[in-house]
Amino acid sequence: MPRLPIAPSGPEFSRLVYGTWRLLDDGASAQDINRRLQRCLELGITTIDTAEIYGLYRVEELLGRALALTPGLRDRLELVTKAGIYIPHAGDPTRTVACYDASGARLKQSLETSLRLLGTDRVDLFLVHRPDWLTGIDDTAQGLTELRRTGLTRSVGVSNYSAAQFAALNSRLEQPLVTNQLEFHLLHMDPIHDGTFDQCQQLGVRPMAWSPLAGGRLFSPGNEAAVRLGRAAAALADKYDGATLEQLAYAWILAHPSRPLPVIGTNKVERIESAAKAAAIELSREDWFALWVAARGHGIP
Prior knowledge:
This protein has twelve helices and twelve strands.
């Protein structure tokens, strides 16, 4: 599995990232998660993505228990977590309305809690999960800078930011943002058109791509685009050593010149293994566009 510096001032990450958004969905134990992480390591997937809000604020604790089962495991991985989304949940009965909060004080409180749950003294990357319309960029920037200076995180970035929001926050930081984690897949191509991927290339920042399989919609028989993509993938399979639609969908993302890092969201080890093979697929220009056409249902402009 190739490894890449995520930005000139950022850490080195594996080409594919293992995501934990749905870590609680299959009832896996800490031992199960530990074995899954060990398999990721064997495949060269060393970067693990999580967030404070995942699993209604319960995923980080389970992930931390899984890491603790093997001494030294955490130090063989790069940990990414996010904060800034706060919704009503059982752990905080006083909260009645969902909101965003990217104030420096709130981000510090969230990261300190995340570190305690994860059982570590630092993360490799801390992301603001969503833009907060009520917090000024100076407040957010000051908080992120303090977290980096004190060593609680090695680097900072954002998720779901527009190009303008990214540039505004970046202008206030002494160490630049190292990524923008965005939704990007064959059924959602906005980053190609809205300037966010162009900005990443301009700054030498590699984006991270969440929901690379469109949350499973790529395989829905009721989705016309998915049906077209299934036919297109079947026509390309032999050319790419029997690659599946799933693998070609990852390869399609990896081929973009901004060099996105797809965040794998499955709980099944065999699908992690399948995804890992996609890192070796180099789509031709024509085949990349064939998948684009299949997804959009029309030719290029």
